[in-house]
Design a protein that fits this description.
About 45% of the residues lie in helices and about 20% in strands. The protein is α+β, with helices and mostly antiparallel strands. The strands form three sheets. A six-stranded antiparallel beta sheet has the order 7-5-4-10-9-8, sandwiched between helices. Helix 5 runs antiparallel to helix 9 and helix 6 packs across helix 8.
Length: about 280
């Protein structure tokens, strides 16, 4: 079965990081294809000097965020990650609440649906589901951080998230993931403004070739987005009919997810979605 890969290990350049951020950022280098990382590889991935990386690794291991394989001397994620994840889900059960809605929309559309929450200048995937009815489908890795400037989820996040978000992304640079990635600041600003007008975002092959996506914002108890829900489709199946079906279903689903998370969709966005329907 062939798959279209929608994610790659990529971390956008940001403002200079403090000591704590540099240490915690080492955890972002883990992914399903990189379950264990040694000191030398950490140094290469992070771009930090060996002594600094070693100090960070020791501190992270001492606090349970990492553990060291006694045979290979490589590091892997530690038990503190599991404990905090369990506490987070128990206190704020986002995954279990959102899962049925995501699965229902994926089944209705026959395509991959994913929900992500903002983490700084990226989106951190929360949950995804694919109906698995097609031979060619989008591959989604929940361990990957999604860049804001290159994804539909990111455009929706910048349009309805904190006011400073677009400015911060522009200041961090707009590296190209594909030939279709928006790398011009003025053009990206225009697109985000357009998303504010229409209420949902569309990106064609901005993060991965042959993958097109729609996304809508999700809200907490404040009038700014905390995350997004998106539908990712192999570009060859993103027909006019599919665009219509996604456009019809996504706003209502985003409102339902927002409600389940205890949030409220801002009144002006409700009007935009209602008018579009």
């Amino acid at each position: 079965m062939s798959e279209t890969h929608a994610n790659k290990h990529w971390i956008q350049a940001e403002k200079p990081m403090g000591t704590i951020t540099k240490a915690l950022n080492l955890l972002n280098h883990f992914c399903p294809g990189r379950a264990e990382i040694g000191l030398t590889e950490f140094r290469t991935l992070s771009g930090q000097d060996k002594a600094t990386v070693h100090r960070h690794l020791i501190e992270l291991a001492a606090n349970g965020f990492l553990e060291q394989n006694p045979v290979t001397r490589g590091y892997r994620l530690g038990p503190a990650i599991l404990r905090l994840a369990a506490v987070r889900e128990r206190l704020f059960p986002a995954r279990s609440i959102v899962a049925p809605i995501v699965e229902r929309l994926a089944s209705e559309l026959g395509e991959l649906v994913h929900v992500s929450l903002r983490e700084g200048l990226h989106l951190s995937p929360l949950i995804h589901h694919d109906a698995l009815i097609h031979g060619t489908r989008v591959y989604f890795d929940e361990a990957e951080l999604l860049p804001l400037h290159a994804t539909a989820s990111g455009h929706a996040m910048m349009a309805f998230g904190p006011e400073h978000l677009l400015r911060d992304v522009l200041e961090g640079g707009l590296p190209a993931s594909t030939a279709h990635t928006i790398t011009d600041p003025a053009r990206l600003t225009e697109i985000v403004d357009d998303v504010r007008v229409h209420g949902i975002a569309f990106v064609d092959q901005g993060f991965e070739a042959d993958v097109s996506s729609y996304a809508a914002p999700l809200f907490g108890d404040q009038p700014e987005a905390i995350g997004t829900i998106a539908v990712a489709v192999p570009t060859m199946r993103m027909t006019d009919d599919m665009k219509r079906r996604i456009g019809d279903a996504l706003p209502g689903t985003a409102a339902e997810v927002t409600d389940k998370l205890g949030g409220v969709v801002p009144a002006h966005l409700k009007r935009i979605w209602a008018h579009a329907a």
